[in-house]
Amino acid sequence: MKHAAIMTVMILSLALSCTVFEPASPQLVDLLPRETDVPGWLMGGRESIAAGDIKKENRLYAIFGAEGYAREVFHSISDQSVTTLVEIVKFPTSFHCFGLFSFERGFDTVFFESGEDYYITQKGMFIWKGDYYIKITSSAGTMSMVKGYSVFGSAVSGAIGSLAKEIKLPSYVYTFSDNYSTGDLVYYIQGHRLLPGSEKIFVRKKIVFDEPSYVFFSRYDSHASASEIYGRMLGVADPGYIVTKEGNLQMNFRQGDGERLVFMAVYKDYIFGVLNAADPTKGQRIMARLYADISGYYK
Fold first, then answer.
1. Tens digits of pLDDT across the chain (299 residues)
2. What count of Cα atoms within 13 Å lies in the side-chain half-sphere of residue 57?
3. Do 74 and 86 meet the contact criterion of CB atoms below 8 Å apart?
């Protein structure tokens, strides 16, 4: 009996010691580089922004749902007027993070190097690492900094390591993709300027019938939700939409940028369309193709 009591005490003591000495998860600010990680640069100050203050520091980060933000400035040893800003933004999910990553990338960015989860421009390096967004920008913004961006990026990515959640997006995000890619996709969480009243819109750049097209889509939790938002979009647009039909698909179109036309339709829980149709005939043809793609998802 005495032996059993001693064993129980030992087991409890071991369990408690493991709990006490279990390493805590690092703070976001601890994942920023050290001087030893980036030779040739001096630390100029790091800070962690409280969740409640993110909107004051960067409204865009808050809009996309950031829940953590840390940053650090480095000065070049060879020229201390040259600085590099390293930012880490933490999101609830990889989907939230992708939204900001894609929005800041946009469609017109000129890349020196790019992949599904990163890109490098003259301005900086931008990395989507699961639920972490890494952003490295320099005051120099010259070709000589391109290699330097990768050094900073590798240091932060390595520090985050397995802390990052797996990159996993809902399957509908790949709607209208020919190669299951997000490299040609931008998420407009507050809607697109050519679609008044819209929200949470994805725009994909692709070739449709030899036409460079910007097609869009958004998927909601029900047909009723999609129809409600679609009705709102029809109601607030100025100039308004014109109703037309192609086969079984009823659609609406209006003037877009310049001579281009915006076409859209609702089908089940999807709103979809094209932002830059050259004329009504081509717009209807593109819409028929998109409709065939979407309706095929339900078969």
1. 445 444 444 444 444 444 444 445 679 999 999 999 999 999 998 999 999 999 999 999 999 999 999 999 999 999 888 999 999 999 999 999 999 999 999 998 888 889 999 999 888 999 999 999 999 999 886 667 778 899 999 999 999 999 999 888 999 999 999 899 999 999 999 999 999 999 999 999 999 999 999 999 999 999 999 999 999 999 999 989 999 999 889 999 999 999 999 999 999 999 999 999 999 999 999 999 999 999 877 65
2. 17
3. yes
- The residues, any chain, with a CB within 8 Å of residue 101's CB and separated by 6 or more, are 117, 126, 127, 128, 133
- The b-or-e profile of 143-181 (16+ CB within 10 A means b, else e) is eebbebbebbbebbbebbeeebbebeeeeebbbbeeeee
Would you state the torsion angle of the CA atoms of residues 155, 160, 166, 170, taken in this order, to the nearest 10 degrees? -80
Specify the CATH number for 171-297; select among 2.60.120, 3.40.1000, 1.10.10, 3.40.50.
3.40.1000
Q: Are 271 and 251 in contact (CB under 8 A)?
A: no
Distance in Å from the first CA to the final CA of the chain:
68
Model pTM greater than 0.70?
yes
User: Which residue type, as a one-letter code, is found at position 134?
Assistant: I
Which pair of tokens denotes residue 146? 């391109």
Rounded distance between C-alpha atoms, residue 209 and residue 110, angstroms: 26
Enter the CATH code of domain 28-163: 3.40.1000.70
Phi, psi of 217 (to 5 degrees): -160, 160
Distance CA 59, CA 68 (A): 13
Q: Which residues contact 266 (CB under 8 A, 6 or more apart)?
A: 223, 226, 227, 230, 272
